[in-house]
Amino acid sequence: MTLIKSGRLLHQYVVDVYSSIEEDRLRWHRLNQDVLRAELYSNVCDAVGKGDTDARTVGKRFILPPSFTGGPRYLIEKYHDAMAICRQFGNPDLFITMTANPNWKEIKDHLAAYGGDSPNDRPDIACRVFKMKLDQLLDDFKKGTFFAPYTAALHRIEFQKRGLPHAHILLWFGDHSRTPSPEEIDKIISAELPDKQKDPEAYELVAKHMIHGPCGLDRPQSPCMENHVCAKKFPRPFTESTSIDKSGYIIYRRRKNENANVLKDGILLDNASVIPYNIEILKKYAAHINVEWCNRTSAIKYLFKYITKGVDRATVLVEKGPDPPPSENGSDPQTSEKGKEKVKKARNEIKEYQDCRYLSACESMWRTFAYSIHKRQPSVMKLVVHLEGEHNITIKDTDNLGRVIQKPGIEKTMFTEWMVLCRTSAFARTLTYVQIPEFFTWNNSSKVWSERKRGTSIGRVVTVHPASGDRYYLRILINKVKGPRSYTELRTFNGVTYPDFKSTCCARGLLANDAEWHESMAELNTWGTPSQLREMFVTLLIYCHVANPKELWDKCWKTLSEDILYKKRKEFKHPQLEIDDAKLELYTLLELEKALRNQEHTLTDFPGMPTPDPLLLKELGNTLWQQELQYNVAEEKSRHDTQYTLLNREQLDVYQAIIESTQEDYGKLFFPYYYQAAGLPTPVSISQSI
Predict the structure, then answer these.
(1) pLDDT digits over 472-502, tens only?
(2) Alpha-carbon gap, residue 19 to 589, rounded angstroms
(3) What ranges do the domains of the chain cover?
(4) Does a cis peptide bond (omega within 30 degrees of 0) precede residue 102?
(5) Distance of CA 665 to CAs 640, 655, 660, 662, Å?
(6) Which residues are bridge partners to 449 per DSSP?
(7) Which of 68, 201, 511, 558 has the fewest Cβ atoms within 10 Å of its own Cβ atom?
(8) Per-residue pLDDT reduced to its tens digit, 45-101
(9) 17: how many CB neighbours lie within 10 A of its CB?
């Protein structure tokens, strides 16, 4: 009891405990860098054939593998798994963020029974209660308590620096191709204060948990303020009905209601500051639970990147140190003897993971309790693909390579055993490689595919870069060919066996008219960000001999431009900026030109590729010009008609003179000047010059 009542000292204790646990796991990876090596099976066989049986002479070292929970490779794997679910079911329908409430009744009751001044003093209780609430919420989603039962779900646990855990949840309902109606969205999500008289409980919950701010002019020093603007775009504009904007974002109904307001920190806030929520969920769980509809947004990949962004880090200041002293012979110690090549330090992923690592008490307790930080349903299976005899095997530093290659099953992989399965199963011969996990399970110990008896799984074939040679063309084939029984059968088409997989792809017509490059871009688009898509496009232009780059550009430029509007809104500090397709294409070409110049190329090197007009780009970069163009024609006309009736005789003369000069293209300059006596109308005079 002394320990759990020690307040902030308990925080320090649990952080120290989990730091020791994590350091012990990292130490194992660090000390086994020289023990575990991976090498191609064929290369080990070649080494044995040459009489070289020393394992220290071959292989590459592991760094920090995906099996290390929370590491960068682990998160990349989870991101690709999430995008595989997206490929199967489309964009998720709902994005839900649930944050722990330290004032939950269960936490208060425990503190009352066992003592404690504040919920913040007991991170262990906060984590346990949050875990129970989260499990119950996910179970409610599965049963369809609040809306239709999900067909797929994914959630990720994160921890705020102040300590509270929160969960990002994505739900799929199945019918991803349908655009929801405003009525359907309003039925699930609200962004307005409930009526205080009709439903006082709902009003109190929304006022307590779902109000943003105050910020903006009411509180410019609020943490959400960046460059005098709220980073979360609050307060939001009022709107009479729910709609979907050009980017696919939902603009929720926020009606202006003088009677709907709440006093927070001495400032009166209204519907413009309400965070979208579901009232039934809010009533049951009494916590901050943000609910957003997201199945039409084009920024879905950033949503997945956001929930797999990795661990928190502390802020540090990095300063340039003094230059190293010259060596005795006067040479620079950072350069080689020949001259002038700098020594490149080897990358250490373990150190990178630990550097500036921020660990809160709640995260320490969560991880010490061995609670999961990432879950998905259905499961996703990563499917390896390799050329014949070129799969990776793991060997120890002290192994005799002759004995290694004689181990039973050393030559078996899930890829080779898929072809073995196709020899014995007629049903397997009707499936492509990526469809196999839906109907069969892989036993990694016995290295055998078995018929699935329950559940399902989504297959995800590992990505292969177009510069990988024949392995890239093998991957193209296995996505098209069903049920091959051997590598030879994969290379055979219409009774002719070809020498390599590229020739087979050509014979099947898979490479005609740049088909392989169109397919590469289409597949990358299922998980790659726009910047990664632009990098791939540049790679294809430079290294892959694209026959018709203009056709490839026309087909995929919109996916390359998905982040441009966001960047320009941030650059111009203009949240409501809209860009038409012609200008958007020019901006995207400019980004492509920058990437090509980094590779010492330019768009003019590729015949047929459009090039940005420098004069137009200069105009597009004018922030004031862009802001002046963003106006509502109907709104401005209504304002004009109202103010026109209020003009006096002198003002009307000025108006007519300016309009006449504009319509007749006289090009006159006008200098209005006026004076005003107390209580009298404002007379205006003008001087003109041509």
Answers:
(1) 999 999 999 999 999 999 999 999 999 999 9
(2) 47
(3) 511-630, 634-689
(4) no
(5) 21, 15, 8, 5
(6) 442
(7) 201
(8) 555 554 545 555 455 455 788 889 988 889 888 888 888 898 888 888 999 999 999
(9) 14
